[in-house]
Amino acid sequence: MLGLKQSLSIRLTKQESLQPTYVLEFITDPSNEGDAISIVMNTTNVAQGTLIPYTITGIDQADLSFGSLTGNITIQSNGIGAVALVLANDTLTEGTETATVTAAGEQASLTINDTSTTPPTYALSSDISSVDEGNAVVFTMNTTNVANGAQLPYAITGISASDITQALSGNITINNNTGSVTIDVIADVTTEGVETMTMTSMAQVVNVTVNDTSISPPSFSNTKSILFDGIDDKIITSAEATMQSRSYSFWAKGTSTAMYPIFGHGDQNKGCFMLNYAGLKRPILYSGGAYCFWDNISEQTDGDWHHWVVWYNTGAGTGGFGHSTDGVKLYCDGALVPISNINLYGTPSQNEPITIGAWRQSGGTSANCKIDYFTIYDRELTLSEVQAIYNSGVPLDVTNLSTATNIVENWQFGEGDTYPTLSNSITSNDGTMTNMLSSNIVTDAP
């Protein structure tokens, strides 16, 4: 056998093993609080699905509103892995921070800008703890982190709007983190006792004691009236010498069923108002050729005090007496009395100043009743104003009512008067008791 020697040449190839590489970074650097960021790992020679642990230092977990300070980066088929995070937009002033991420022996850093706003603070105070009426109290609001020009609303409770000059609500303007408002307390004439003023603003509350230093006016007294005898008693005045449109307010008390005048301006047909007139016993206003009858009501003769208001428009226009039923009105105890008969054909007239309790200053018929508190107004009174004067049958000081500025004459009849003069609190037109005695000032009043 021929020996054949075959030689095999075996070539051994040593394959060099491939080493992985890692590049770590933050997207985006720098970032602001509230931004979304990403940790990105770029690799080579790392198998898909590989989990690479990471750790973030330099910040707290509270600095992230999404994500964690530790976790894994999952490598995808392209060799890249990423982790999404969101920086918290908190309210803490921390200054600039640096976050450092470590993974696979690599590190990357991220600068975080502190864009947080520290919440504002408020502190309300007053310069005094108690204030007398007629003085002022200053409320001051001290703040932090409040912009210049900010308007902070306030409200005041515990007192009424009439107690202070300013409104019960408003704004405190802030500049350089402070602002103030001055509240002036009115020195009124109402006795109210000690009150507590409460200022509230931005959930801050401050109480200030308001000391009542006011002196209330003397209480109103009405205990006297004038008694007329039905023969020749009268009160002569120099008031209302010229005919003008007026509202007449007075109180009367009588039992006589005979006709009698309450006031007149020279005669029974010269701006004269009477009760129990003629056979039908009705109230009447008679002026010139015009007259108005109202319904016969028991208040004329029932022996009780009643409040009356007569509106008398002397104008020549369509609204005047003699032209319109609106030219005259009669109220008794705060209620409108119905008209029963009216003659519009005539022109109102007068030839004397007003005489109370009689037609005229000399002679004529006189009242047979008691009359009290006679007031004349320069305009027609509304129903609500009439009712305010009536005050449910209790006289009050009419000069304290809203209609006080419309009073042209006012006689209270007897209160502080010395016979024979009845003082007028508005003008110098005092009344003179004529054909009367001091005993005609009687202690009897509504």
Structural write-up:
The protein is rod-shaped and about 145 Å long. Helices cover about 0% and strands about 40% of the residues. β32 (about 420) and β33 form a beta hairpin. The chain has one helix spanning about 385-390; strands at about 20-25, 30, 35-45, 50-55, 65, 70-75, 80-85, 95-105, 105-115, 120-125, 130, 135-145, 150-155, 170-175, 180-185, 195-200, 205-210, 225, 235, 245-255, 260-265, 270-275, 280-285, 290-295, 305-310, 330, 335, 340-345, 355, 370-375, 405-410, 420, 430-435, 440. The longest helix is centred in the C-terminal third of the chain and has 8 residues, at about 385-390. The protein has three domains: about 20-115, Immunoglobulins (Immunoglobulin-like, Sandwich), CATH 2.60.40.10; about 120-210, Immunoglobulins (Immunoglobulin-like, Sandwich); about 225-440, Sandwich (Jelly Rolls), CATH 2.60.120. About 35% of the residues are buried. The strands form six sheets. A nine-stranded antiparallel beta sheet has the order 28-24-23-22-21-29-19-33-32, with no helix packed on it. The protein has one helix and 34 strands. With about 450 residues, it is an all-beta fold.
Give the topology.
Blueprint: E1 21-27, E2 31-32, E3 36-44, E4 51-57, E5 64-66, E6 70-74, E7 80-87, E8 97-103, E9 106-113, E10 121-126, E11 130-132, E12 136-144, E13 151-157, E14 169-173, E15 178-184, E16 195-201, E17 204-211, E18 225-227, E19 234-236, E20 246-253, E21 260-264, E22 272-277, E23 282-287, E24 290-294, E25 306-312, E26 328-332, E27 335-336, E28 339-343, E29 355-356, E30 370-377, H1 383-390, E31 407-411, E32 421-422, E33 431-434, E34 441-442
Parallel strand pairs: 2-9, 11-17
Antiparallel strand pairs: 1-3, 3-7, 4-6, 4-8, 5-7, 8-9, 10-12, 12-15, 13-14, 13-16, 16-17, 18-30, 18-34, 19-29, 19-33, 20-25, 20-30, 21-22, 21-29, 22-23, 23-24, 24-28, 25-26, 26-27, 30-31, 32-33
